[in-house]
Every structure is written in structure tokens, then in C-alpha cells.
């Protein structure tokens, strides 16, 4: 499949998901008083309640059996759930520890990894202009990595874990909401155990019964975080089944660009001229790729 045959719904769903992910550092920053492990546990539990509840309402109890009956679905969704939980945990810790710029670097690197996976594993094809855009983006990411100032282990780990998650969700033949529901069921019991452990060891503060109550505003943000977790993941899983994975890779630059702007302009993190050069190169690459896609779409014959 080439970029000439685009599913418009998949394209806009992907864009919306990445925009929401791009501004999420501001949301998690509001929860910086809550320990990172507690945030991730609440994120899993409330997301699971929302997604599984909706699936039960729409499909009844048969949805789980039907989903797991798909070839390889059980173990692949267990693996993807583990990967996304790890990615969430590292990301939230990094945001609240003042590393928003480095998390954005990770999600700048991730699209290049997706393009590589799309070409090597899924045998997707790129034309010369698209390869040029990939090369420019790679140069921008390399520049950012070299001029970051220290080995960006957070960025590289975030990129690898989310790249592997996206590839698994591309390969498993499961509708996006059902896939997230199964992932949530795998994760919800460990998350509940973590919450109970936190309450019993002085790290929990949910509701007035908590050891050191965080207040109703933070409690509400933790609950709402479940919906904000589910919606972009459902959109992402839907998009990777509708449009080429290589295109998903380049559209993902929307999220780290917004994250970078949040970290620098709103959260006061450092951003010098060296990093600005890498940022400009990446956006040039995205413009080249998008321009090529528009030209190819205009040249394609219209149906009678």
C-alpha cells in the first residue's frame, strides 16, 4: 500500500490522536503532587472501567470470547498491554520530573522507527520524495540527539516501546476498542494491587479515606485521565489499520512538536538554538511528505 491510497477517516483520526497526546504533558503536570506509580495505576483502572463497560453495554459478555478467538490475539494483546503500560509509566515519571523536552525527543525518534518498521517488516513502499523527507527527518533527529547534552535514554526507551506497541496493534486482527479492552483486562488487576499497596504504605491519597488525601480536584483529574488515556489510543489503533504505517510514522511528529512547545513555552524547560535547528529540519521533512501526498492525490483519476 502506498500513500496514494489514503483513508481520510484514518488520516483525521490519527491527527486528532496525536494532537491530544501533544498537549497531555500539561494535564499530567497538574497531577505532579501524586506519585507517578499511583497515576499510572489510576490511569489503567479508570480507562479499563470506561472501555470494558462500553463493550459490555454494546456487545454483551461475548465480546471477550470473540476477540480472544482471533489468531494470536491473546498473547499479542498481552504483550502490547505490557508495552503500553511501561511506556505510560516512564512518560508520566519523566514529565513530572522535568524532562518534557526529552520525552518530546523520544516521540520525534519514534516516527522514524515506525517508518523503518513499515518498510522492513510490513513491506510498505516509499517513493523518492518520501525517502527524501525521511532522510531530512533523520538528520533532524540525529542533530537533536547529538546536541541534547547527555545520552537520551528516556527518549530512546519511549521510542522503542511505543514503536513496538504500534506494530503489534497493526498486526493483530482485532478492532481497536476491543483490543484496548483486552489490554485493560490484562493490566487492571496489577493496577488495583498497586493502588492498594500505595494506600497501605502511605503513598495513596485517593478520596477522603486516603492516607494523605490529595483533594477532590486531583481525584477528578485522575478519573478523567482514564478517558484521556482511552480516546487517543483507540484512535491510534484505528488509524494504523486504515493508513500506511509509514504515514502514521510521519504524522506522529505532531505530538512531540506540541510536547516540545508545552515544555519550553509553558513549563519553562531549556531550549537553545541547537535544538531549534533539529526542530526546523523535522518540520521541513513533514512538509515535503505532506506536499508529495497532496500532489499524488490530485493526479489520481477521479471516479466517474
Automatic annotation (TrEMBL):
Organism, as annotated: Luteimonas notoginsengisoli
All copies of domain EamA, residue ranges: 9-145, 154-288
Assigned protein family: Belongs to the EamA transporter family.
UniProt entry keywords in alphabetical sequence: Cell membrane, Membrane, Transmembrane, Transmembrane helix, Transport
Compartments, as annotated in UniProt: Cell membrane
TM ranges: 12-30, 36-57, 73-93, 105-122, 129-145, 151-168, 180-198, 218-240, 247-268, 274-295
InterPro entries reported for this sequence: EamA_dom, EmrE-like, RarD
A Pfam family the protein falls into: EamA
Family annotation (PANTHER family): ACYL-MALONYL CONDENSING ENZYME-RELATED, SOLUTE CARRIER FAMILY 35 MEMBER G2-RELATED
Mode of membrane association: Multi-pass membrane protein
Protein name per the record: EamA family transporter RarD
